């Protein structure tokens, strides 16, 4: 192809690609600013139920503490087939919640703590027994604001 | 190969580096915004029997979900789709007086002496078993929440005019993109008033151990 042949002196210069980095950087900065890092892999199934009366959660100031629950996902069958919790990157039992809550509280500024919300990201096929255990643990630690994370109906 | 005519700094690989970063952020980006049904848990009591309050039976609306995900409302089997209407009827009944002796003048219910006295006294008691599925439970929570929102919306439109519904105002209030603090303050006053008119009292008792 003639276009890609070596440039000989006197010919027209190639189309300048000097602006390309600028464009790419623009895109890069856009994605950098809107990115929320995924916090690790999910080790539990997490098909959210749907609900109409949902409210948006404010992610600012690390006000939200996430608790995942569901049956162990593929590849994690060694944790059984019953619903389990996932706290950060570890599969856990409701008895581990107390420690988890203390660890999470220690990460946050003191003035944020009264406004903290516990977001329960729970698979829809989980039994309420597990949720009750979570709720009791939260109540004992006085973390009373909870939010059952749900999808809006019609969306997947 | 070819002789350079000007000794420019080669910036050709800059694009490659930027692309690499771009692709990294593209892959790690999640645009999802978490939406949730918010509830407040009751305070933990070591012995709940000690300070038990006697509540008239007519002021309690019992909803029981069993392990087969069947719904029992006030001892009658009910379909989930009828729950919202039943809850609205119960909350909005206004058959008697509130704790400070006021009649519910904005209630549009039947004012039956057999049902709740006042929205501030109407308690929805939700009970579930350990085997109840979370999906059903949340559906019920959603329907009950929707009953309160329906009533608050209705009163909001009556007080603040067409289109100023509770849900709309709440969405503005909670939107972190809206920076207008004056507007938010104004909305908060309204929201609090509406919440006071129809306070959401859903009591979630611990699930019975079989």
The most extensive interface, with participating residues per chain, is: A-B, 60 and 53 residues
Percentage of helical residues of chain B? 25-40%
Examine the secondary-structure arrangement and name the CATH architecture of the domain at 60-148 in chain A: 2-Layer Sandwich
Q: Assign a percent range to the helix content of chain A.
A: 25-40%
Q: Biggest sheet of chain B: strands, sense, closure?
A: 5 strands, mixed
Q: How can the largest sheet of chain A be summarized?
A: 5 strands, mixed
For the biggest β-sheet of chain B, the strand order reads 4-3-2-5-6
How many domains in all of chain B? 1
Report the count of strand segments of chain A. 6
What structural class is derived from the secondary structure elements of chain A?
alpha/beta
N-to-C terminal Cα separation of chain B, in Å?
83 Å
Report the average pLDDT across residues of chain A: 82
Name of the CATH first level of the domain at 60-148 in chain A: Alpha Beta
Task: Give your account of this protein's structure.
The complex is a heterodimer of chains A (156) and B (210). Chain A has helices spanning 20-34, 97-107, 128-140; strands spanning 55-56, 64-70, 84-87, 90-92, 117-122, 145-149. With 156 residues, chain A is of the alpha/beta class. Chain A is elongated, with a radius of gyration of 24 Å. The mean pLDDT of chain A is 82. Chain B is of the alpha/beta class and 210 residues long. Chain B has one domain (57-204). Helices cover 38% and strands 13% of the residues of chain B. Chain B has helices at 12-28, 83-91, 134-160, 166-174, 181-197, and strands at 35-40, 60-65, 71-73, 76-78, 123-128, 202-204. In chain B, 28% of the residues are buried. The mean pLDDT of chain B is 82. At the A-B interface, helix 1, strand 1, strand 5, helix 3 and strand 6 of A face helix 1, strand 1, helix 3 and helix 4 of B. Strand 1 of chain A pairs antiparallel with strand 1 of chain B, so a sheet runs across the interface.
